Amino acid sequence: MDVQTLPSSSFQQADTPATVAIRPLLLKPQWMNGLSERLLVSHYVNNYGGAVRRLNAITARLAALDWARTPVFEINGLKREELIAAGSVILHEIYFESLGGQGDNPPSGNAEPPAGLAQALERDFGSVMAWRAEFTAMAKALAGGSGWAILAWSERLRRLVNHWAADHAHGLPGATPILALDMYEHAYHLDFGARAGAYVDQVMMNLNWERIGARYRLAIGEDTEEDELFLPFGAPTQEEERISAEELKVALERDDDRRPVLLDVCLPRDLPRRTDMLAGASMHAPAALPRWVEELPRGRPIAVYCICGFQVSGRTVAELRRRGYDARALVGGITAWHAIGGATVPLDTATYEGSPGH
Fold first, then answer.
1. For residue 175, which of 47, 87, 97 has the smallest C-alpha distance?
2. Residues linked to residue 180 through DSSP beta bridges, in sequence order
3. For a tag site, which of 11, 153, 229, 270 has the least CB within 10 Å?
4. Gap between the Cα atoms of 230 and 227, Å rounded
């Protein structure tokens, strides 16, 4: 769900206006075929995160309008921008959720659609190969401009449709996108420069067909119980064991003993990927948990984060809860925190096991 409500627990907080919550990266940005971590994280934090922040700001502005007295040009402008921002949020989520490997494995580069979706593509395009040729040609035709290449299910037409979109607000009415390929320059220029066609070919080698197939089944009304496909691999599956970036931001504004303790966990090999951390967090190596766990207060909630919210924080939270601590994993890790515009401070490894002087 996009609108997050914090369940009753020691993380309980005052009611806040509903906002569209950031969704976590489901791909491991350092493990992609020919798409760099720098490109993917910049796209996620700055462009997708920027769209979420913009949509929430517009929503708050609209909620405060005096509709009878507001000039029509302001209403028109805000509603136009709301539509563009909402379209950007949703299409970016579909784009990112359509990429990445299975579980702890990087994309194979040669995966094929699952049987049900493959049959639908054959029915509506003649073959999977014919669909791919049309979809990639349509995407490459957007090179040098902007927009989206979208595969959508049209209930009215009763078929899958490849459709071109000039911008975030340009879609087939009544259709449900199941795959979206971002053709704005921000999606590829850091890695590919002006070679948009090469970017399209590389994205097609990184598709997560299991998630695309699940989205198709939902679009045609089939029941699917594959919620874990849309959680970062290794993240806690129980909602009460997770906390969103938005929830954490509000919880950190508390001044009492219910303010969460921040725990930054990072594998030694991932330290070179880190430059910052949340203010007040202590940083530790997950494998050294028996050495530092007793330092944690038992009477305070604990928010645990890693880079993207995969198994590093997930396993740490599982162990802390097993030991009786009130711990939750930050959904999407510090990357999601960056995407909501959360403040950070330079990385401090003074408490990290193995650091000089520790």
1. 87
2. 150
3. 270
4. 6
pLDDT tens string 271-292:
999 999 999 999 999 999 999 9
Terminal Cα distance for the chain, rounded:
42
- In single-letter form, the type of residue at position 58 comes to I
**Cβ–Cβ contacts within 10 Å for residue 168, how many?**
22
CB 263, CB 297: distance < 8 Å: no
Packing angle of the helix pair 72-97, 209-219 (nearest 10 deg): 130
Instruction: Name the residue among 265, 334, 245 with its Cα closest to residue 23.
Output: 245
CB 303 within 8 A of CB 248: yes
CB count in 10 Å sphere of residue 202:
18
Share of the chain above pLDDT 90, in %: 86
**0.90 exceeded by the pTM?**
yes
Enumerate long-range contacts of 108-117, CB under 8 Å, 24 or more apart: 109/33, 109/205, 109/206, 110/205, 111/207, 111/208, 111/209, 112/209, 113/209, 113/212, 113/213, 114/209, 114/210, 114/213, 116/213, 116/216, 116/217, 117/209, 117/212, 117/213, 117/216
State the pLDDT at residue 223.
75
Burial of residue 82, with CB atoms counted within 10 A of its CB: 0-12 exposed, 13-18 middle, 19 or more buried: middle
pLDDT, tens only, 167-208: 999 999 999 999 999 999 999 999 999 999 999 999 999 999
> What is the tens place of the pLDDT at every residue in 304-314?
999 999 999 99
